[in-house]
Design brief:
By secondary structure, this protein is of the alpha+beta class. It folds into 2 domains: about 5-100, no CATH class; about 105-150. Helix content is about 55%, strand content about 15%. It has 6 helices and 3 strands, in the order αααααββαβ. It has helices at about 15-35, 40-45, 45-55, 60, 65-100, 130, and strands spanning about 105-115, 115-125, 145-150. It has a 3-stranded antiparallel β-sheet, with no helix packed on it. A hairpin with a 2-residue loop joins strand 1 (about 105-115) and strand 2 (about 115-125). Helix 3 (about 45-55) crosses helix 5. The protein is elongated, with a radius of gyration of 24 Å.
Length: about 150
Amino acid sequence: MPPTIPEKCLSCPLVIEKLVSVERLHRLGDELIRLAVSSELDEMKETITAQLDESAFAPLVEDMTPDEIIDAIRSGHGQFLAFIQTRIDSVDESLTDMTKYCKGVLKLQAERDEVGSRVQYRVTVCGAPTLASVGNETSTEKAIVRRREIET
């Protein structure tokens, strides 16, 4: 079951990145299921077999019929779907851990004179205590940066 993201963490760049990652994995899984149950693989079996025969995979499929090759591809889809679900579960667990004790994102703002204008910078970074406990004084991590020119 996907984690419930606290309201205070919804604008967090790391949470957003992880949620996008999970959405992509779900879409990939849906597409694999669609392909596995559709007739597309059956319609393409001769082409797929010919391409495999001319590839580095030829020794693996030389004794297989086109139908056996398609069955193996479908079986591989199932294994890959299980792998995708493992990744989704891992990201969900990481989101739960990350947001569990978080007090919310940190929002920083500064203004600076640029050539001929003044620019306002707003930065949003993750405030999760799990990041602070890494022990590094400096880290490279996701941030949301908004720049806008302000009238002087």
